[in-house]
Amino acid sequence: MTTIEFWNLIVDSVATLLAAAAILIYVIFWFRDKTTNSYDVFDATYMELLKIAMDNPSFRNPEMTQNYETAFSGDQKIRYELYAFMCWNFCETIFDKQDKELMKTWSVIIESESKLHLVWFTNPENNNKFKRSFKEYILKLLDNN
């Protein structure tokens, strides 16, 4: 091996190590940014759900949601069912991320929504709308409380 080949090998090795370090740093920052961006998106989405509830306060009334089949009728029942589905879909999306930091923040909301819309969730008509892993998580969550 000549001196030039030796130095080329050193330079190539250093360049490879620096590239690997840059990729590692990029991945670390990407994960941090992903969590922050996810939180912002979830926060905005949940705010929209709460705005809908402000226009329809009965959708957040446990006495009505726990008896939604009889408490609501006609278009109001359809609107509540759509709202409950939106809330559950929001919760499942958070669950699907499997992000510990997000779950620290949003698990309280998932629990709250679960209690509020449990009757809709357990209605056999809605059984196939969610993944089994999410349904098991919710039932376990509610059993622990």
SSE order in H/E notation?
HHHHHHH
Class per helix and strand makeup:
mainly alpha
Number of strands: 0
General form: elongated
**What's the average pLDDT?**
86
* Largest sheet properties: none
Strand coverage percent: under 5%
N- to C-terminal distance: 71 Å
Low-confidence parts: none
Helical element count?
Answer: 7
Rg is: 24 Å
Range of helix content: over 70%
Characterise the protein shown here.
With 145 residues, the protein is an all-alpha fold. Helix content is 82%, strand content 0%. The protein contains 7 helices and no strands. It has helices at 3-55, 62-65, 68-71, 74-97, 100-116, 118-122, 132-143. Helix 1 runs antiparallel to helix 4 (74-97). The radius of gyration is 24 Å and the shape is elongated. The N and C termini lie far apart (71 Å). The model has no long low-confidence stretch (mean pLDDT 86).
Helices and strands in order, then pairings?
Layout: H1 3-55, H2 62-65, H3 68-71, H4 74-97, H5 100-116, H6 118-122, H7 132-143
Helix pairs in contact: 1-4, 4-5
Brief description of this entry?
The protein is mainly alpha-helical.
Give a quick set of tags describing it.
7 helices, 0% strand, mainly alpha, single chain, 145 residues
